[in-house]
Design brief:
It contains 19 helices and 30 strands. By secondary structure, the chain is an alpha+beta fold. 46% of the residues are buried. Helix 9 packs across helix 14 and helix 11 (542-554) packs antiparallel against helix 12 (565-584). It starts with a strand and ends in a 6-residue tail after the last helix. The chain is globular. Strand 13 and strand 14 (179-183) form a beta hairpin.
C-alpha cells in the first residue's frame, strides 16, 4: 500500500498508511488525524481509508460540497484518490453546524484487509495539517441554512410542486454575501443546466421542479429570504431574441414580457413565427441572439413548460380516468402515494366537467370533450406555464367559448401562466387574454388589449390587419415597456458544479422517476393490448397459425422425414419473422405524438421504447408457443444435445420473431409516415422470404447480405438441429446446416443481438429527432 501524499495549503504531507485517517473540523480548523474525533470537540467530515491497493476518501452527511479535490468539487460520497497523491482545499461554502453531522463516525470503516479497524477512545494525536475555513453566519448567531422540500414535510422552504422530493436541496448563506444552493435528493438547475451546487447573488434565480426560486433582498431570519414562483405561475421574458434557420429569419429582435398568471393569445398570419416562438419556449429551439428567461431564470428546463398540441394526442381505447392517471404518474415524482395521484385526477376530472364521462373511452367523446381531456393531461401535473396550440381548432363557437373560459379559469384558480396560439379571436375576452401579434418576418407588431388592437394600428378589423401583416413587414421591432429597467441576468453564476453540458432539452430527471416511468409505460402498453378486444387479439394469432397450417400441408410428416421438410421449416420461420415485423413497424409512426408528449415532461425515450419492446417480447413468446403447440404433433426431429425438439422449435420461432420486431421498430423510427413504413416493411418481408436459404443455395455476396436477416438465422438454427443436409444432394449441402450445438445456438444469439441493436437504433433516432424539434411523422 503506498503512502498517501496529501497536499494542503500549508504544504505537502505524507500520511501513514497503517489505519484510516479522519477528516474533521475543530472550531475554525480543518484537521486530518489518525484517530476519529470526539463529538464534543469537532464535526466529522469523513475519513481516508486504504483498501484494495488504493486510498479512498469517504465523505459523510451533506458536507462534501465544501471540499475541493485537485481543484474540483467533490461529487460523490466515496471516491478513489489518484495514486500520485491529491490536493485538498476548502471551497468558500458556509459552514453550518446545524446541518453537519455532529455524531461520531457511525459508518463502518474497513482496513485494507476488509476488517473493521479497532476504535480507540484514548488520547488524540496531533493534526497532520490544518487551515482556517470561512466563518459561517450561523456561528455569528444568524441563520445560514434552509432545507428545501415539498409541502407536508419539515422543510424550511416548502414548495407545492409535484416534482419536489423530500430533502430535495438546501440553500445556504456565506459570509461574503453569496448564496449557495446544493442538490441533495433531487435535481436543481441554474440557467437551464443541471448543477450539483452553484454560487448565487441576491436577485439570481434557480429552478427546482416546475418552480423558479429567486433570492430576494429580505433580511435573513427564520423565514428563508427567497421568492417562490409556485402558486403564482411563471413569468416569461424575451429580450431582443432573434432566431434563424439557415437564411430564414423566424423571429426578429423580439422583446416581450408575460406576467406570472397572465393569459396571452399569440396571433399572426401563417409563417409569422408563432410556432417558432412556442418551440423556443419549449426549448426545442435555441436563439441565435438575445435572452429567454422563464420564471426569472435564464433558460428553462423541460419540466417547467407544459404543452398541449393542436391534435388530441390520446389513446382512443383508454378511459378518461385511465388517461389522466397515466399522465399523473408520468408527471409526479416517484415517491408520490397512489391515493394522492388518484385524488388529483378526480379533482381535475371534476374541474373539467367530465365527472359523468370519467369511465367513458376517449374514442366515444365529442371533439370538445377530447380537447378538455387533452388539457387535463397537463393540469394533473399542476403546471405553472402552459402552452397551447390552436386548442379550439375545428370546434364550433359554443365549444370555442367553453375552452377559452376554462383557460381563463385555469389561470386564475390554478395559478398558471398561459400562452395560447390561436386564429379564433371571437372569445378572447372570455379568457381575459391580452394579445401578442407577430407580423411578417417574425417581428412583434403589437402587445396589449385585443379589443382596440386593429383600430390602434389603423385597420377596421382583425382580418384587414392580419392580411396587411402577411404582406408588409413591420418597419421596426416593438419595444416592450415592461422590460425597461429590468435587471439583467448573468450568463452563469460563479462556482457551479455542472453535471451536464446538454442543452435544455437534455434528460432532466431522476433514476427513480425513470424506473417508475418505465413501469407505468409498461402497464399502459399491456392495458392497450388488452383493450384491443377479443376479435383483435384473436387476429394476432391469424397469420402465424395460418402459416403453421400451410407448413403442415407442405410436409404432413413434419420435420422428421424428407420430402418437403425444408420447405415446411422455411414457411414456419419466415412466417414468424413476418409476424414480428408486423407487430412494430407502425408503432412509432402512429403513436409518435403521444409518446413525444410524455417525453416532453421528462420521460426518457429509453423508458418509453423499452416498455414497448418488453410488451412485444411477451406477445412474441405467446405466438411462438402457439405455433410450436400446433405444429409439434406433426412430427419433429429427434432431440439433440439434451434439448427437447419442441423447445428448440420454440426458441427458433421466438428468436426470429423478436429480431424482426426489433427491425420493425427501427423501420418505424426512420419512416416519417405510415405509407413509408409500409413500403420499408414490405421490402423487408420480400428479402426475408427470398434469402432465408431454402429456395436456393446462397453464396458470395448474397450469403453475407442474408446474414442480418432473422429468417435466415432462424432457419440455420433449426436446420442444424434437424440436420437438414440429409435431405439435400451432395453438391447442394449447406455447411451451416450440419449438426452442431454451436450452429444451433449462435444464430439464436445473433437474432437477440439484432433485436437489441435495432431497439437501440430506434431509441437513438427518435431521441435525436425530438431533441432537434423534428417529428417522427
Amino acid at each position: 500500500m503506498p503512502t498517501l501524499r496529501l497536499t494542503l495549503p500549508d504544504g505537502e504531507h505524507q500520511l501513514p498508511d497503517d489505519r484510516p485517517l479522519y477528516l474533521w473540523t475543530e472550531g475554525d480548523r480543518l484537521r486530518v488525524t489518525a484517530d476519529r474525533p470526539p463529538s464534543q470537540r469537532g464535526v466529522g467530515l469523513g475519513y481516508f481509508s486504504p483498501m484494495l491497493g488504493s486510498w479512498w476518501l469517504n465523505l459523510e452527511g451533506d458536507r462534501q460540497e465544501i471540499l475541493l479535490l485537485d481543484g474540483q468539487p467533490v461529487s460523490a460520497g466515496r471516491l478513489r484518490l489518484p495514486r500520485a497523491g491529491a490536493e485538498l482545499r476548502l471551497a468558500t461554502v458556509p459552514t453550518s453546524p446545524a446541518t453537519a453531522s455532529q455524531a461520531p463516525f457511525d459508518t463502518p470503516q474497513f482496513d485494507r484487509d476488509g476488517t473493521e479497524p479497532q476504535r480507540d477512545d484514548g488520547p488524540r494525536s496531533e493534526a497532520f495539517a490544518s487551515l482556517t475555513p470561512p466563518t459561517g453566519a450561523a456561528q455569528q448567531g444568524a441563520r445560514a441554512s434552509w432545507s428545501i422540500g415539498p409541502v407536508g414535510t419539515s422543510a424550511d422552504i416548502k414548495i407545492d410542486d409535484p416534482q419536489i422530493r423530500p430533502n430535495h436541496g438546501r440553500l445556504r448563506r456565506a459570509p461574503d454575501g453569496r448564496w449557495w444552493v446544493t442538490a441533495d435528493a433531487g435535481p436543481i438547475y441554474v440557467n437551464g443546466v443541471r448543477t450539483r451546487w452553484a454560487a448565487l447573488s441576491e436577485g439570481d434565480a434557480f429552478v427546482i421542479g416546475q418552480t423558479a426560486v429567486t433570492i430576494t433582498r429580505q433580511p435573513a431570519t427564520t423565514t428563508a429570504p427567497v421568492e417562490v414562483s409556485a402558486g403564482q405561475g411563471l413569468s416569461v421574458d424575451l429580450d431582443r431574441v432573434t432566431l434563424r434557420r439557415g437564411s430564414t429569419t423566424l423571429l426578429d429582435d423580439v422583446s416581450l414580457h408575460v406576467r406570472a398568471g397572465e393569459v396571452v393569445a399569440l396571433i399572426g398570419p401563417s409563417g409569422s413565427g408563432k410556432t417558432s416562438l412556442v418551440k423556443l419556449l419549449l426549448g426545442e429551439y435555441q436563439p441565435d441572439s438575445g435572452m429567454v428567461r422563464i420564471g426569472a431564470a435564464n433558460g428553462a428546463v423541460r419540466q417547467q413548460v407544459r404543452y398541449v398540441p393542436q391534435s388530441d394526442d390520446l389513446y382512443p381505447s383508454l378511459t378518461v380516468y385511465e388517461t389522466l392517471l397515466y399522465a399523473a404518474r408520468f408527471r409526479w415524482e416517484s415517491n408520490t402515494r397512489s391515493a394522492q395521484l388518484e385524488k388529483q385526477v378526480r379533482d381535475v376530472i371534476d374541474w373539467l366537467g367530465l365527472a359523468e364521462r370519467a369511465e367513458a373511452v376517449i374514442g366515444s367523446l365529442s371533439g370538445g370533450e377530447r380537447r378538455r381531456v387533452s388539457i387535463g393531461t397537463e393540469l394533473v401535473g399542476r403546471p405553472q406555464l402552459l402552452l397551447l396550440d390552436e386548442p379550439t381548432s375545428g370546434l364550433d363557437l359554443g365549444k370555442d367559448r367553453d375552452i377559452m373560459r376554462r383557460l381563463g379559469a385555469i389561470s386564475q384558480e390554478l395559478h398558471c401562466t398561459i400562452i395560447v396560439v390561436t386564429h379564433t379571436l371571437t372569445h378572447l375576452r372570455d379568457a381575459g387574454a391580452s394579445v401578442l401579434v407577430l407580423g411578417k418576418g417574425g417581428r412583434l407588431a403589437y402587445r396589449g388589449n385585443p379589443d382596440q388592437a386593429p383600430e390602434e394600428n389603423g385597420h377596421h378589423s382583425w382580418a384587414d390587419w392580419l392580411t396587411y401583416l402577411d404582406t408588409v413587414r413591420p418597419r421596426a421591432a416593438l419595444r416592450n415597456p415592461d422590460l425597461n429597467g429590468a435587471r439583467p441576468v448573468r450568463a452563469r453564476p460563479a462556482g457551479g458544479g455542472v453535471l451536464t453540458n446538454r442543452s435544455v432539452l437534455g434528460l432532466i430527471t431522476t433514476p427513480e422517476r425513470q424506473t417508475r416511468a418505465f413501469l407505468t409505460a409498461l402497464h399502459r402498453q399491456f392495458m392497450l393490448l388488452w383493450r384491443r378486444g377479443p376479435r383483435s387479439l384473436a387476429a394476432l394469432f391469424g397469420m402465424p397459425l395460418l402459416g403453421v397450417l400451410v407448413a403442415i400441408a407442405a410436409s404432413p410428416g413434419g420435420l422428421r422425414s424428407g420430402g418437403n421438410s425444408i420447405q415446411a421449416l422455411a414457411i414456419l420461420v419466415t412466417i414468424a419473422a413476418l409476424t414480428g415485423a408486423s407487430l412494430t413497424y407502425h408503432e412509432l409512426v402512429s403513436e409518435s405524438s403521444i409518446l413525444r408528449r410524455d417525453w416532453r415532461v421528462g420521460i426518457s425515450v429509453v423508458s418509453l421504447l423499452l416498455a414497448k419492446a418488453a410488451t412485444v417480447a411477451a406477445v412474441c413468446a405467446v405466438l411462438a408457443s402457439a405455433m410450436t403447440f400446433v405444429f409439434t404433433p406433426r412430427g419433429l426431429p429427434s432431440s439433440a444435445d439434451a434439448l427437447p425438439a419442441p423447445v428448440a422449435l420454440f426458441l427458433t420461432l421466438f428468436s426470429a420473431m423478436i429480431a424482426s420486431a426489433g427491425l420493425g421498430m427501427a423501420i418505424s423510427s426512420v419512416s416519417g409516415t405510415l405509407e413509408r413504413a409500409v413500403t420499408f416493411s414490405t421490402a423487408l418481408a420480400v428479402v426475408q422470404v427470398a434469402l432465408n436459404g431454402s429456395l436456393f443455395q446462397l453464396t458470395g455476396l448474397w450469403r453475407w447480405a442474408a446474414a442480418v436477416l432473422p429468417s435466415r438465422q432462424g432457419f440455420n438454427a433449426m436446420a442444424s438441429y434437424a440436420d437438414m443436409n440429409r435431405f439435400r444432394g451432395p453438391g447442394t449441402r449447406e455447411a451451416l446446416w450440419s449438426v452442431s450445438e454451436a450452429r444451433f445456438w449462435h444464430p439464436l444469439l445473433f437474432c437477440l443481438l439484432i433485436f437489441f441493436m435495432s431497439t437501440a437504433a430506434a431509441v437513438a433516432v427518435t431521441t435525436k429527432a425530438w431533441r432537434t424539434g423534428k417529428s417522427v411523422r
